[in-house]
Amino acid sequence: MPRTKKPNTERSPVAPESSPDDNVAGGALASFARAAEAVAATTKKLEKAALLGAYFHTLDDADLVRAARYFAGHQFALNDARTTNVGTNLLRDVLSDVTGLDTENLRPRYVRLGDSGEVAYEVFSEAGRDEVNQPAFTLAAVESLVALLSDTRGTKNKRALLADAFARSTALEAKYLVKLLVGDLRIGLKEGLVEDALARAFERQLSDVARVNMLTGDIGETAARARRGDLAGVSMRLFHPIKFMLATAGEDLADIARTMPGEFYVEDKFDGIRAQAHVERGRVALYTRTLDEVTHRFPELVAPLAALQTDAIMDGEIVPARGAEILPFAELQKRLGRKTVGDELLASTPVVFIAYDLLYAHGRVMFDEPLALRRAALESLVTSSEPGAGDMAATLRLSEAKRVSDVALLDAEFDAARGRGNEGLMIKDPRSSYKPGKRGREWLKLKRALATLDVVVTAVEVGHGKRRNLLSDYTFAVRRSADDAELLNVGKAYSGLTDVELAELTEWFRAHTLQEFAHGRVRTVEPRIILEVTFDRVQVSKRHKSGYALRFPRILRLRDDKSVDEIDTLETVSKLADANGGGNDTEPEP
């Protein structure tokens, strides 16, 4: 039977205070929460935007800045590198401290509700916190709290700070404090819709709002500027990640011929980590597709990038390479997740940065310029020569972009790219502008050598034999659709990762378990670990809710560079099944 602990009622002397006098209009966290609840209650984008706009009009400038950031899922502006380092385990412990409920009581609630904020609301309601506390938190107090958490070192100190804050919260405030600290409101809202709501609320052009947000890296400042009508003349600010333009999978050569103009670019599709390099007056930062900074993991790239003759933002790929030889992606994985990279790892797993697009240089923002002009500017900035000709040539390289007018030549180009150790081909329209965060058909990717899917792990199981002490068997899922985040299982794999990787993942899965079965041998886990899997075929199956199962799946690699929003969808699985002839589920899935 679940145990109940005595609630922790001690207060931290450094916790931010909220005065009831501050609890006015939209500046109260409770008002923010009610607006969020209304947004969550509708699936219609125009209604969501209207609800946000009405709420924004109730705020003063300072609270408008805070609210826009929070609705976009940011604790800080993107140009602010601070983090709170507050995870779901710490929040679960704090909820236990404040409510007196043992974590054994909380864990099944996470499984049933699937949302940390909903769990907080339920347990705070049951504990009668609304009878003890009055709504008193303001958005300013939330801002102070996340700043204090960023400055506070040590789990024990963070736990005390959080316990004090939650001890003064109502159920609704606790719900949204948790959501804000996790960084995911889960109310059917993305940053683009916040931009749209700001444009509608303050009668501005959406393109102007989106552009200022992209240039500044701060949706909060953008909101204040939109209200004032101050969206013109904003300069690019470096050192905040800009969303990457994405490519669509090309179906076949006929699809490419239909889509591309008479002449198009063909580049190798590199098997590395997509990266964005920011350079300004010798300072360098590298960001991944998940908008995380990874400069410290690739110190050998700093000097050649810093040597560029201008401030710049380049799009490219970090690829493991020794001279002209492209190394397997598995070599690069050795450096992912490391806080420090020692000399031995630098020597054993060298990397290069291969630039293939230029977004900003010489004080000029280039997103709206055609790729042909961006490419010409990139070629003048990055001198490409044979690997080994010098430090600059060895670590900072320019991709080769061939102009091709006959799709029949792509078969040979594809084979040549595979022979160089790369994944396949990128096909790009020379007229294309750079569209941050957008996936269109102006860029196509061709990967025909293996059928692969990007999936997320939803459950794990203890292995057998020498892996009997490891969580090594992974059930994985795809999204229902690009707009529907429901996860649908499509298979289970247990091969492809090294024992070292499995050991590290075992510790992670134990720390992020949602529910245990069979005395801990089987666990449902937080869906955050992304895998790339290959398989023999897709077959129709009643085994999974998705209606499909992968035959003989095998893990190719971990995808630390991707988020759950970027995994494949049921539509992709269905197309692969159709390509297989829609095979029946006649063979057991391994």
Helix-strand layout with pairing:
Blueprint: H1 29-40, H2 45-56, H3 61-71, H4 88-99, H5 103-113, H6 116-126, H7 129-132, H8 139-151, H9 155-167, H10 171-182, H11 191-201, H12 206-216, H13 219-228, E1 246-249, H14 253-259, E2 264-269, E3 273-280, E4 283-288, H15 302-306, E5 312-322, E6 325-326, H16 329-333, H17 343-348, E7 351-361, E8 364-365, H18 371-381, H19 391-395, E9 396-398, E10 402-404, H20 410-419, E11 424-428, E12 439-446, E13 452-462, E14 471-479, E15 487-493, H21 499-511, E16 513-517, E17 522-525, E18 530-534, E19 537-540, E20 548-551, E21 554-558, H22 570-579
Mean of pLDDT? 88
Shape: globular
The helical percent reads: 25-40%
The portion of residues forming beta strands comes to: 15-25%
* Number of individual domains: 3
Radius of gyration: 25 Å
Q: Identify the CATH class of the largest domain.
A: Mainly Alpha
Report the CATH architecture of the largest domain: Orthogonal Bundle
Counting helices, strands and paired strands, the structural category is alpha+beta
- Main sheet overview: 7 strands, mixed
CATH superfamily of the largest domain: DNA ligase, ATP-dependent, N-terminal domain
* CATH topology group of the largest domain: DNA ligase i, domain 1
